[in-house]
Amino acid sequence: MANNYLNLIKPSSKWKLFTQSLPNPNLFHHFSSTPHDRRSYLKKEQALLSLFKKSCTKTDVQQLHAHVIRSGFTQNLFVVGKVIVFCAVSDECLMDYAVSVFEKIENPDGFLWNTMIRGFGRINKVDKVFCYYKMMLENGHIVDNFTLSFLLKASGQSGSVLLGKQVHCSVVKLGFECHVFVRNTLVHMYGMLKDVFVARQLFDEMPEPDLVGWNTVIDCHVCCGKHKEALDLFSRMQDAGIRPDDATLVVVLSACAALGALELGRWIHSIVDERFLMKDVSIANSLIHMYTRCGEIQEARRIFDKMNDRNIVTWNTMILGLATHGHVQDALSLFSSMINKKRVPPDDVTFLGVLTACSHGGMIEEGRQYFNRMTNEHNIEPTIKHYGCMVDMLSRGGLIIEAYNLIKNMPMKCNAIVLRTLLAGCHMHGNIELAKNVRRHLLEVDPDHSSDYVLLANTYASLEDWNQVSRIRRSMAANKVKKPSPGNSFIGVP
Asked: How far apart are CA 139 and CA 149, in angstroms?
């Protein structure tokens, strides 16, 4: 894949300029069709630029672009660049339209090339990113720190370590390895590629990392599951006299949630209160997530109830937290409030929380209804995780055969996790025949997982069939399957 990007496909020349939307005549009546002198030209340019500041929709920009064409400003890089910037950075990311505009520019400057590269990176079209990078070089433009940062981000998104290292080599060759902005992006890229060792090495080589550098390396460790190391870095950041911002607090709270570091999470909460940051939805969501993961459901609910602005993440985090800790009725009541008051439309994660609540509460019939409503009322297609919740719910309730039939009728291929859930249900209810059948399926998917042997052996043991127990254990030894090292649990006590 990396070689394909670096060989680079040739850009298409089939894109045509989109001029379908015409401007409102009343909006531009004070412009003449063509500039007559320098003063008139500058006046028109400033008038156009002022209108761009008021544009916030695709239609607005299309109308303005149509007037740019009619006014003869198509080669004014500053004016036409506003169209391209809007297309590249807007939520819609209108890169097809940006291409149609860009290809009409005779001599685009480095800023416009960078903007095109940036836009394609935002929609994860890595091939287009490097295609435009190649064309940029062929047209004699000099690569700057922005170009390299956009390339590094695209390399991280691609998941290709080889591609990332090749761009890293370009950074070194061009002398940008000490540029703070580029170095921070390098750390971020290696974090995206799950190479936390190189990310940490690059960070440690920085003489005086700034706030962005600290945030980036902490986030890298959290994304790579190195939560304890992330908190150690946060402590070093404090010792270095760097004041954490809202981005720091969000990522540190995520590490606290993963480790169950309740006391540190409460300390972060006190910082949030001191700085009046609770209005930041992402911080409030992180606090709710941390408290639910640490078992402090009441504290999480207090934060939730005080929030004036809640997004879908807020609702999902609270519903799932309540469901996971056995507050079934509270979780379903919160979901009903969300639906009945039409505050935020539910998504697939919302229904994962609802189905988890039904599973933990043994509410099989309600679970079936919610599963059907997800598709019929909300047009949300169930994923393998939703089917897994249903299998877990049915297995807990003793409906093993129904759970097995549900797996057979799934529209996607079943994975080992769902099969293992059914196998655990067979063990719970002593259904040895179905357990053997499920085990055969597991051998095709994940043949050497120790828990499958243990569950099947324990199912025979519950029926006092010791010969079969012995046979399973011998098979486990013959296949050199060993139980993993025992895990450790801890909880912070105030």
From this structure: 20
User: How many C-beta neighbours within 10 Å does residue 115 have?
Assistant: 24
Choose among 329, 253, 251: nearest CA to 291.
Answer: 253
Buried b (16+ CB within 10 A) or exposed e, 76-99: bbebbbbbbbbbbebeebbbebbb
Question: CA-CA distance, 122 to 296, in Å (whole number)?
Answer: 37
> Looking at residue 447, what DSSP letter applies?
T
Query: What tokens does 481 get?
Result: 């399957």
pLDDT digits (tens, 9 = 90+) for 74-100: 787 877 878 888 888 887 788 888 898
Tokens representing 167 are 């761009």
Separation between Cα atoms, residue 94 and residue 241, nearest integer Å = 42
- What is residue 28's predicted lDDT score, i.e. its pLDDT? 40
Q: Which residues in the chain land under pLDDT 50?
A: 2, 6-36
Tell me the pLDDT tens digit for each residue of 99-137.
Answer: 988 988 888 999 999 999 999 999 999 999 999 999 999
Task: Measure the CA–CA gap between 98 and 10, rounded to whole angstroms.
Answer: 18
Q: Which of 41, 32, 35, 90 is nearest to 61 (CA)?
A: 90
pLDDT score for 255: 96
Instruction: Show the tokens assigned to 341.
Output: 């008051």
Rounded Cα gap, residues 117 and 167, in angstroms: 14
Q: Outline where 72-176 has alpha helix (H).
A: 77-89, 95-102, 110-122, 126-138, 145-158, 161-173
